[in-house]
Amino acid sequence: MKQYLNLMEKILTEGELRNNRTGIDTISVFGLQAKYDLQQGFPLVTTKKVFFKGVVHELLWFLAGDTNIQYLVKNNVRIWNEWAFERYKKTDFYHGESQLEYIEKIKNDDQFAAQFGDLGPIYGHQWRNSNGVDQLKEVIAGIKNNPNSRRLIVDCWNPQEISEMALPPCHTFFQFYVSNNGQTLNLQLYQRSADMFLGVPFNIASYSLLLQLVAQECGLEAGTFVHTIGDGHIYVNHLDQVKLQLTRPPYPLSKITIKPFASIFDVKFEDIELVDYQSHPLIKGMVAV
Ligand SMILES: Nc1nc(=O)c2c([nH]1)NC[C@@H]1CN(c3ccc(C(=O)N[C@@H](CCC(=O)O)C(=O)O)cc3)CN21
Ligand SMILES: O=c1ccn([C@H]2C[C@H](O)[C@@H](COP(=O)(O)O)O2)c(=O)[nH]1
C-alpha cells in the first residue's frame, strides 16, 4: 500500500493550502494517479484499520440501486448520516430534532425513512437507473460480449440531476478494460475530489471489490485498479493523523474471497469474506460536511 502513502506524502510536500465550501481548509494537489494490482493482494489500507464492513454494505447498497440511508443505518454504517440529516433539516417537517433522534427514526419508522431518508439520485440511482438506463448491467454485458470495446463506461455525472443530489458524485466516472488476451479485467476510476484520509481508503477498497465482483461474474481474473484523482486533498484537521500513518510500516495485503454466484446483483453480505487482514490501529478523524 505504498502507493496510497506516496500520494499523501506528495500532497504534504507539494500541496497548496486552499479553502472550500466546508469551512475546513485543505492541502491539495490537482491530478494524481495510483495503480493497485489485485494479483498482489487486496489493497485495503493497513496503516490504519479500515471499516471494511462499511465498504461492503455501501457497495451492495449502490449495486441494489438504493439511495435511502435506512439500509446503511440498519447495518450500523453511519458514513452517509450527516448528508441525509442536512437534507432533512431543509424540509418543513424538521422541528429541531438532533441528528441522533433523526437517525433513530430512520432506523425504526419505515414510513419516515421512505419520506426523509433519501439522498436523491446519487450513485445507486445513476448506476442502475440513469434516466431508465441500467449502466452497470449494460457494461457487464459489454465486457462479456464485446471485451475489446473502448466504451465500457459508467458515468454518474448527470448534470440535469446534480441539484437533486445530497452531494455531487465524487467517484464520478469509471471504465473497464479487458487485457491479456481476454483473460484479465481492469478498472479505472476518475475521482473528481478525494478526501485522502477518510474517503480514499474506502474508495480504493470499494472499487477494488467491485472489480473483483465483476471479474468473477465474467469469468476473468481481476487485474489492476487505476485510481485517477482530480483534487486530491488532506483536510488540515487530519494532518496529525496522516503524519502518524506515514510513520507506520505497511503490513502484507489481505485477500478477498467471494462465494460463487451467477450475477453480482445476487451477492449478499455474508458471501464476501476478508482474509488475513492485518492492520495498525484505527485513527479517528472528523468528517468535513
Ligand atoms: N469530507 C468528506 N469526506 C468523505 O470521505 C466523504 C464525504 N465528505 N461525503 C460523502 C462521503 C461519506 N464518506 C465517509 C464519511 C465518513 C467516513 C468516516 O467517518 N470514517 C471513519 C469511521 C467509520 C466508522 O467506523 O463508522 C473511518 O475511520 O474511516 C468515511 C467516509 C465518504 N464521503
Ligand atoms: O466517496 C467519496 C465521497 C466524498 N469524498 C470527499 C471529497 C471531498 O472532501 C468531499 C466532497 O466535497 P465536494 O466539495 O463536493 O468536493 O467528500 C471522498 O473522498 N470520497
From TrEMBL:
The active site is at 170 (nucleophile). This is Thymidylate synthase. It is found in: Cytoplasm. It catalyses: dUMP + (6R)-5,10-methylene-5,6,7,8-tetrahydrofolate = 7,8-dihydrofolate + dTMP. The keyword Transferase applies. InterPro entries: Thymidate_synth/dCMP_Mease, Thymidate_synth/dCMP_Mease_dom, Thymidate_synth/dCMP_Mease_sf, Thymidylate_synthase, Thymidylate_synthase_AS. Its EC number is 2.1.1.45. Gene3D superfamilies: Thymidylate synthase/dCMP hydroxymethylase domain. The lineage of its organism: Bacteria, Bacillati, Mycoplasmatota, Mollicutes, Entomoplasmatales. Homodimer. Keywords: Cytoplasm, Methyltransferase, Nucleotide biosynthesis, Transferase. One of its GO terms (cellular component) is cytosol. One of its GO terms (biological process) is methylation. It comes from Entomoplasma freundtii.
